[in-house]
């Protein structure tokens, strides 16, 4: 069974800029979760629930709805891990740091993989209109049907795409030299 496959991808400058914008929006989602959870906790001592957090963050951000939910879940996992560590006697803090960037994930309904190596990332519906999808191209894809079922795409800071059964991870660092950056892009 294929555990992980990393491969370079190609994309236009506009697409790469939009991918980084997705990471900025995901950071805003994280900060929204922090603010939303802090308010009721300070007033009542109770934390916001998963369903209420998802309900209140719905339709606010210009990325795929499942991407917003993934950030919310990441916040909830961090909060629960801090609680568990505190109960075990460790001195740890609940999530509190604001983030400028956060890795964006696309769940299996948020992207399409084509035989020719094209991966189309859906941006979802924002303000009643479907947004233009992002297209990236990879040279190598896993053989067989492994890529199509239960995958997730994650935007990070390297210009590498990793394909993992259950997870497909796109990482995106800007390369400092413009010449090298142009070499990794194209259609």
Notable characteristics:
37% helix, 20% strand, 4 helices, alpha+beta, disordered C terminus, 187 residues
Write structural notes for this entry.
This protein is 37% helix and 20% strand. It has 187 residues and is of the alpha+beta class. Helix 2 (50-57) packs antiparallel against helix 3. The protein has helices at residues 13-44, 50-57, 65-87, 178-183; strands at residues 5-7, 9-10, 104-106, 111-113, 118-121, 125-126, 129-130, 134-138, 153-155, 160-164, 167-171.
Task: Please count the helical segments.
Answer: 4
Give the distance, in angstroms, between the N- and C-terminal Cα atoms.
Answer: 31 Å
Which segments are poorly predicted (pLDDT under 50) over 5 or more consecutive residues?
A: 145-151, 157-169, 173-187
Spatial extent as radius of gyration: 18 Å
SSE pattern, N- to C-terminal: EEHHHEEEEEEEEEH
Beta content comes to 15-25%
What's a quick, concise take on this entry?
37% of the residues lie in helices and 20% in strands.
